[in-house]
Fold:
Amino acid sequence: MKLLLAFFLIVLSTLVISNQKTNYNTDPLQESIQRGSEIYTDFCITCHMPNGEGVTDVYPPLAKSDYLMNNREGSIKGLKYGQEGEIIVNGKTYNSYMAPLGLSDDEVADVMNYITNSWGNKNDKMITEEEVSNIKN
Structure:
């Protein structure tokens, strides 16, 4: 009886420990957004600010950005290869330079999923690594 009880306790404790290590967030979009948030903090936050509002007259906002939401391919291309020349964001012209960040296609997809689902932006169509890899300079 004691042996059976000990066995039961070992099995129960193993199940409890393995449940604590299980990642229950299996939504691919949410996982991508989380990874994108970390990349944004490392590469983008200096110019586009923590709230995505950019710097007035210098760096365009990502928050509630009509350019970002209406120019999916152009936005991906800008993030992947850098951006220069005039763009119009929320009715205001910006003519800044954004250097290529050296991100891999999956990192570009993650950042795009993060910024297109933050600060008032909503994008239900997940941007994938395959979509990013198909965009050429």
